[in-house]
Design brief:
The chain is built from eight helices and eight strands. By secondary structure, the chain is an alpha+beta fold. Helix 3 crosses helix 4 and helix 5 crosses helix 8. The longest helix has 27 residues. The termini are far apart. The model has no long low-confidence stretch (mean pLDDT 93).
Length: 169
C-alpha cells in the first residue's frame, strides 16, 4: 500500500526540490544524496539545515500550513528521493495509525533538532559549534562546501578557517 503511493524522483547536483515562494505539497524520503535548506537575505544564502541519506525532508512550515515557502531546498549531490503527496499521506494516516505515529515521531525529532540548534546558537561559541558538528556529523565536512558550513554555523568563512586551523593543531 505504501510503496504504491511513493514515487522515486532523481535530481542532479544543484537542482532545487523547492524554491522560495512555492507551496511544498510533498513529504520526501532521501534515499541517496544530500541537500540543504537555505534562506536568502540581502543577497546572501543562509543555510539552516542539511539532509542526507535516510532523512525525511520537507519544508515543514509550507507543508503544514499550505503557505508559500520562505526557504529553498537544493541538492548538493546527485540524489534520489521518494515523494508522497500530502493528500495521499493523510489518507494513509486514516487507514494506518502506525504511519501517523511514525510521522509524528519524525516531527518530534525535527522539533528537538530545531530547539537544540537554537539553544546552541544562543550559548555556544563558534569553536564549540564546530566541535559539536565534527562530533555529531563528521560526514558534513566531506560532503558540504565550507561556505555552506560556515553559513550553517552562523560564522564567516574566515572564522571557520581559523577554527579549523586551531582544531587541527
Amino acid at each position: 500500500m505504501l510503496t504504491e503511493r511513493l514515487a522515486p524522483i532523481t535530481f542532479s547536483k544543484n537542482d532545487f526540490l523547492l524554491k522560495k515562494g512555492r507551496v511544498c505539497q510533498h513529504f520526501y524520503f532521501l534515499e541517496k544524496g544530500a541537500l540543504r535548506g537555505f534562506y536568502e537575505l540581502d543577497g546572501k544564502e543562509i543555510t539552516h539545515w542539511f539532509g542526507f541519506e535516510n532523512n525525511f525532508i520537507t519544508s515543514f512550515h509550507s507543508y503544514i500550513t499550505g503557505q508559500p515557502s520562505i526557504e529553498n531546498i537544493q541538492f548538493l549531490e546527485d540524489s534520489t528521493v521518494w515523494a508522497i503527496s500530502k493528500k495521499e499521506l493523510t489518507e494513509l494516516f486514516d487507514a494506518f495509525h502506525e504511519i501517523e505515529r511514525l510521522v509524528r515521531i519524525i516531527y518530534e525529532q525535527y522539533y528537538m533538532q530545531l530547539e537544540e540548534r537554537y539553544v546552541n546558537a544562543q550559548f555556544k561559541t563558534a569553536a564549540e559549534l564546530y566541535a559539536d558538528l565534527i562530533h555529531r556529523a563528521p560526514h558534513i565536512l566531506q560532503r558540504v562546501p565550507l561556505g555552506q558550513i560556515s553559513s550553517y554555523l552562523g560564522i564567516t568563512q574566515e572564522t571557520l578557517s581559523r577554527i579549523r586551523k586551531q582544531h587541527a593543531q
